[in-house]
């Protein structure tokens, strides 16, 4: 696909996504809202965006307030939708559950709308990361040349729809992303970063290139068969634990946005069982099982790249 056709497809996909989100919001406002709750997390300022999270105080909102907060966030796709001091590198999270009483036809209608939105989100991601053929380092410029100020984390993250759970409860997940890599794979990644010739604040392009060249030299000195591992901590994230008694199964969902929870053809006095999200305190986390890990030496701190000791 040539460049101009790709740009046109990207813009058409995004415009359709905005239309579908608006249509979903209108449809949800017409339904019967059951007791619902969402939990606002504190704003993350630009100065705090790289800080380790040790405590999170949540602020619950209920029912219609919860619905409006949720619909506003789903439609919030640009930096200028947020206050100027808020970090654009961390997506705003709003865990919770929006619960609706609906007929089977109403459920199918909303299900089709959410599936359409998720398809467009995945298509948008695919255009940028695969069809464009551009490197990871060039994606920022490609996206923001078309849609200045787009928060890609918000644009890509999908919506979750579930039906007739027995209970929905909330908690926190704390984990690391671990990826094994070869020396040559890391060198290729660093060379692409060098070729992109970008300035990464607070560095000038020349200072950044100097830093990458030093990293390349460090990796080149390692044995060809060196065992390298990226071990990047993921910021603590809210999760939902959903229980279905008829199949005796609990399903866990990442919960950056509220779950859309539908109860189909229920009695008029039906009330869902929805839990609260407690504050997060890193000092009170109990780890049930910590597997024994191999000795690791930190090689490139910014990449969280480690050398596994033999």
TrEMBL record:
GO MF annotations in UniProt: DNA binding
SUPFAM superfamilies according to UniProt: Replication terminator protein (Tus)
Keyword terms, alphabetized: Cytoplasm, DNA replication, DNA-binding
GO annotation, biological process: DNA replication termination
Source organism superkingdom: Bacteria
Signal sequence interval, chain numbering: none
GO cellular component: cytoplasm
InterPro entries: DNA_replication_term_site-bd, Tus_dom1, Tus_sf
NCBIfam families (UniProt xref): rep_term_tus
Protein name: DNA replication terminus site-binding protein
Protein species of origin: Proteus myxofaciens ATCC 19692
